[in-house]
Write a structure and sequence with these properties.
Blueprint lengths: L5 E3 L4 E4 L5 H10 L5 E4 L2 E5 L11 E4 L5 E5 L7
Parallel strand pairs: 2-3, 3-5, 4-6
Antiparallel strand pairs: 1-2
Length: 79
């Protein structure tokens, strides 16, 4: 897990700062316990490659509609 990502074991929440890379988030999802939340902190998160968590038993969400923005600059070669 990237050192900038913090974990609260009481709430099973990983706080993902805007400096985290897609790779950091994916690595965190691999070690997260069932029911964990990956919380994108307030600010703009720019993803330059595909984000694939590879599982459906964790949640990825932002801190709020007006607080967290996700920008995807990755383009799929299939169009």
């Amino acid at each position: 897990m990237a050192s900038s990502i913090t974990y609260d074991s009481t709430t099973k929440t990983y706080r993902i700062p805007t400096t985290a890379t897609v790779q950091d988030i994916m690595e965190t999802s691999y070690i997260a316990p069932v029911g964990a939340t990956l919380l994108l902190e307030a600010g703009t998160h720019t993803f330059t490659s595909q984000l694939n968590l590879g599982r459906g038993d964790i949640t990825l969400k932002g801190e709020g509609r007006d607080l967290t923005t996700v920008v995807i600059t990755h383009s799929d070669s299939t169009g």
